[in-house]
Amino acid sequence: MRRLMLASLPLAVAGSLTACTDSEPSYRTGPPAPDRGFPALRVSTVVGGLDHPWDVKPIGPGRLLVTERDRARVSLVDHGRRRTVAFPSSQVWVSGETGLLGLAVDPAFGQNHRVYLCQGGTLTSGRHDVRVTAWRLNVAERKVTRIRTLVGGFPTSSGRHGGCRLLIARNGALIVGTGDAAIGTNPRDLTSYGGKTLRLDRFTGQPWPTNRWAHATHRAQRYIHTWGHRNVQGLAQRADGTLWSVEHGPDRDDEVNLLRNGADYGWNPVPGYNESVPMTDQALPGRQVAARWRSGLPTLATSGADWLPVQRSSGWGSYRGTLAVAALKASRVLFMRFDASGHLQWVQVPDALTHAGRVRAVTTLPSGDLLVTTDNGNGTDRILRVRP
Questions:
Q1: 291 occurs within a structural domain
Q2: Where in the sequence is the domain holding 188, given as residue range(s)?
Q3: 192 lies in some domain
Q4: Which of 71, 137, 242, 244 has the fewest CB neighbours in a 10 Å radius?
Q5: What's residue 27's pLDDT?
């Protein structure tokens, strides 16, 4: 893959754990990493002038697609130059944490030019929802045409906890992470799309045939892959095929979860919307799956995530094979090492990725480099490229 054009000099070069001063929250990130084997990181700007970019994905050598939440804008970045892609932004419902959100690019994009978006919308009744839509980018890469809504009707309230990350798994399933819309009954309601991960066929929009409740009577239940989530912000698939999610906690315990088909992850903020309950409440009926990493107190507002390559030739040294997790409130990227069984071994926070402000999305390029988006608003946001 050709290198993307870089628009600025490196921001910083470092690879050690950051130290907290007395004026900073003492973010508990996990067991410390080894004291050697971490290459210095080069961080450069690919493009700037963005506003709350929510997701970014490569579509070919030097070319990226980007979504911006509040502007409801789709952009093409071609070797460092941005242009707006014609897209019906006025049809996106934007409110609070909801707008134009997750993005996925079809694995056969070179042939079918299909992309998938998660967005707020307005129903014929005038109520709002969050939905997943399929689009086709034209050959000139200047316009997207709607193919269909794949699944919709995700619950909303003010726009809070709208989700909504997308991932195409290696078996072809489209995975969708949803938020609970800050409505306490949604995460454990198997007739609601809220507070879940969903699996579906990316072409037909039908539930994935091996979902636990694929043949249930209620439509929403047929899509459910996992349940009992608060606000899923990140999805990633490891080299071994396992699926992982990242979600926001209330005042404590952001989580990284290893996803199991049909499993309950234990968020149950009732009566009302009681955010003092545990993120994973083991006192609930049945079995609740504990997080593989949690932030403790305070939260970091963890968001997008992706796995780094495992090959020694990647140049990532001790970082290789780790899960890179963006953090909004903590303004950093955490690199988490999990063993083959999914148990946390250590966490490393390179200083080079603590100077850009809030960080929303992390995407691994085919070259092995990382793309990181900032989320500071007011047109100041950037896409950064990180390479060892």
A1: yes
A2: 49-300
A3: yes
A4: 242
A5: 59
